[in-house]
Amino acid sequence: MDYKRDFNILIVDDEKILLENLYDFLKNKGFKKVYTAKNLKESRFKLENFKIDLLVLDLMLSDGSGFDLLKELRKSSDIPVIILSALDGIDDRKEGFKNKADDYLVKPFFPDELLWRIDAVLRRSKKIKGNQKINLGGVIFDKDKGILIKNEKEISLTATQFKILSYLCENINMIVSIDRILDHIWENSYGYENTLITHIYRLREKLEDNPRDPKILITIKGLGYKLVDKG
């Protein structure tokens, strides 16, 4: 293995024993965190409230189809998805890849095969995201130098601005709740919400043509913030 399994995995399946076995298996293989969900409702909650690097998704769930969740997810996120299903028809596989699943594994399966596929998908994802220059609507965020480049001019960032922007980039095109940002940036986040609002506005002054009408770092009312990748 040529990379550390420093990733968070979410497994969605309605089979309790399978969930427990995969949780133990993947934790023992060194993954940072392994979350489980038995239906769409739990899946949506965990995708919204935790940083998930890869989703393992069953299709036949008690409250709907995994395809529905995949379609929803692809409207706002490009996190890797591996479908894990007893549906083995060519039309089912076609539907999965049509909706931008990264891989499709049919049950029954060997846990090691799932692990190999997870590793392969994450390696591909890591290479794609390995470029430390991120294009945000024409403004370049150079993570290596900790600066923005706008209209060919370098713009410095404070340490807190860098942390906030880096965290939002880890969740690019996804809504990130205020609580999640606070918990990530400040160890004791109580009372920092107004401070965060100030930092967000200062970031917008550097990112946006008009910080009062943001197009890159936008507010999703009642939910949080979303950094839009237009690159």
Automatic annotation (TrEMBL):
Any idea where the Response regulatory domain is?
8-122
Q: Which PROSITE patterns match?
A: OMPR_PHOB (PS51755), RESPONSE_REGULATORY (PS50110)
Q: GO cellular component annotations, sorted alphabetically?
A: cytosol; protein-DNA complex
Q: Which SUPFAM superfamilies match?
A: CheY-like
From which domain of life does this come?
Bacteria
Q: Which GO terms describe its biological process?
A: regulation of DNA-templated transcription
Family annotation (Pfam families): Response_reg, Trans_reg_C
Q: Tell me a Gene Ontology molecular-function term this record carries.
A: transcription cis-regulatory region binding
Annotated OmpR/PhoB-type domain residues: 131-229
Query: Could you tell me which residues carry 4-aspartylphosphate?
Result: D58
Q: Which residues bind DNA?
A: 131-229
Keywords of this entry: DNA-binding, Phosphoprotein, Transcription, Transcription regulation
What is the name listed in the Swiss-Prot or TrEMBL entry for this protein? Response regulator receiver domain protein
Q: Which organism is it from?
A: Anaerococcus hydrogenalis DSM 7454
State the taxonomy lineage: Bacteria, Bacillati, Bacillota, Tissierellia, Tissierellales
